[in-house]
From TrEMBL:
InterPro entries the UniProt entry points to: NCS2 (IPR006043), UacT-like (IPR017588), Xan_ur_permease (IPR006042)
TM stretches of this protein: 22-40, 52-74, 105-126, 132-150, 183-200, 206-227, 256-279, 333-355, 361-383, 395-414, 420-443
Keyword Cytoplasm: no
Pfam families: Xan_ur_permease (PF00860)
Species this chain originates from: Methylobacterium crusticola
Name of the protein in its database record: Uric acid transporter UacT
Family, per entry: Belongs to the nucleobase:cation symporter-2 (NCS2) (TC 2.A.40) family.
Length: 466
């Protein structure tokens, strides 16, 4: 019998198991990966073939950034099972830049490159925030990440977003989505969910590991049979196309867009801290300050590569963190293989178009499971927090979760505050992180982090012993 490695993160799986698990990771992140280039390309009024190139470039850069983060080299890369994709925190600022006549696409790329360099420089300093994240803070943030992501999964199940962005006379606007909440789509999402849960309940070994992939495949087959999955773009797409740096021209570096994107980079890095800590809990690997610094440097380098290869800022994708929790497969080589698949999709537009043809309702059923697992991880961490002897910890969780829900339940809550603050205020994860850190410091003091971690570890060990 093969001996399991002491560290499951370093486990090297046979190819017959590795590839389906990697494809599963690609499928659950694909919709999010291509959404940003679609939004920005349409806001800029680019031709369809140029938008298609943006998507290919994004997939290619996703692969590069994922390999940097998972495989790692030198002091870059956290070497955990992470998939990288374009952060949605950058969408609002980039839409503003896209509609500014003196900025445009080349100004966006200049700001992205500068933000990537900024991220590389400040990563060691941001990593020093680790002592501010005892279990009561970490668990709260991860809980909010999962709850926030549920909105994404629910909207996928509904068929996208209740409103869609269209460009009319060069101005982007929001319009009702006529396909949202259709009974057929909801039924397909439910089918995918039932298949996944059935495989997790009755499947064994590898079959249970790829439950999400098999659920998506089953949903895609039903969607194709019902005429909801279209292959026109697949037939029209070329087999091979190179992604060359600076395809649209030399980037332009302007102070205001650069400053804005650097603020976005800070937001991304704070959110990444939560993702890395969540992965540390799921994989059972303790996260050190040096690990965080390597992971944050990879965010910066991935963003820098994004600007060079005609795309946007990159971060760790939360849905893939949830997938690690669902499958229980913790090997980073699964996502390394996923990175190579993303590279291939960027160079093979026909294959990318085939993956893109999978309807969002199919992904919705899988999203409910994966994102719920992230929230469940946060809850599990909170069970190790001492609420009996430190009852004020309850207020840390209660108020921080409330702050995290503001952008989720009231998107226009901060509309009258200065526009420059919106990248900070529109991230529920960041609001929850700031509130949890501040409240923990207020009630427990900054020196409480290490003691709380020791108490949580002792409680967890005692629970396992029992």
């Amino acid at each position: 019998m093969p001996v399991e490695p002491a560290d499951a993160v370093e486990e090297r799986l046979p190819l017959v198991r590795l590839l389906p698990l990697a494809v599963q990771h690609v499928l659950v992140m694909y919709a999010g990966a291509v959404a940003v280039p679609l939004i920005i390309g349409r806001a800029l009024g680019l031709r369809p073939e140029e938008v298609a190139f943006l998507i290919s470039a994004d997939l290619f850069a996703c692969g590069l950034a994922t390999l940097v983060q998972c495989a790692g080299f030198g002091g870059v890369g956290i070497r955990l099972p992470v998939m990288m994709g374009v952060t949605f925190a950058s969408v609002g600022p980039m839409l503003s830049m896209a509609t500014a006549p003196d900025v445009g696409l080349l100004g966006i790329y200049g700001s992205v490159i500068a933000a990537g360099l900024f991220g590389l420089l400040v990563a060691p300093y941001v990593s020093r925030l680790l002592p501010l994240f005892p279990p009561v803070v970490t668990g709260t943030i991860i809980l909010v990440i999962g709850i926030s992501l549920m909105r994404v999964g629910i909207n996928w199940a509904g068929g996208g977003l209740p409103t869609v962005t269209r460009v009319v006379d060069g101005v982007p606007g929001a319009f009702a989505n006529p396909n949202y909440g259709q009974l057929t789509g909801l039924a397909i999402a439910l089918l995918v969910l039932v298949v996944i849960l059935a495989l997790i309940r009755w499947g064994r070994g590898f079959l249970a590991n790829v439950a999400v992939l098999l659920g998506i495949v089953a949903g895609a087959v039903v969607a194709a049979a019902l005429g909801l999955m279209h292959f026109d773009k697949v037939w029209a797409a070329p087999w091979f196309a190179l992604v060359l740096p600076f395809h649209f021209g030399v980037p332009q570096f302007q102070p205001v867009p650069i400053a804005t994107m650097c603020v976005v980079m800070v937001v991304v890095m704070i959110e990444s801290l939560g993702m890395f800590l969540a992965l540390g809990e799921i994989t059972g690997r303790g996260i050190t300050r040096a690990d965080l610094a390597r992971g944050l440097r990879a965010d910066g380098l991935g963003t820098l590569l994004g600007g060079v290869f005609n795309t946007f800022p990159y971060t760790s994708f939360s849905q893939n963190v949830g997938l690690v929790g669902v499958t229980g497969v913790r090997s980073r080589f699964v996502t390394v293989a996923g990175g190579f698949i993303m590279l291939g999709l960027g160079l093979l537009p026909k294959m990318a178009a085939l993956v893109e043809a999978v309807p969002q309702v199919v992904l919705g059923g899988a999203g409910l499971v994966m994102f719920g697992m992230v929230a469940a991880t946060g809850t599990r961490i909170l069970t190790a927090v001492d609420f009996r002897n430190r009852p004020k910890n309850q207020f840390v969780v209660a108020v921080a979760v409330g702050f995290g829900m503001i952008p989720l339940v009231a998107p226009t809550f901060f509309r009258n505050l200065p526009h420059a603050l919106h990248p900070l205020l529109e991230s529920g994860i960041l609001l929850a992180a700031i509130a949890a850190v501040a409240l923990n410091a207020f009630f427990n003091g900054l020196g409480s982090a290490e003691a709380a971690r020791r108490d949580a570890s002792a409680s967890a060990a005692a629970a396992e012993h029992v």
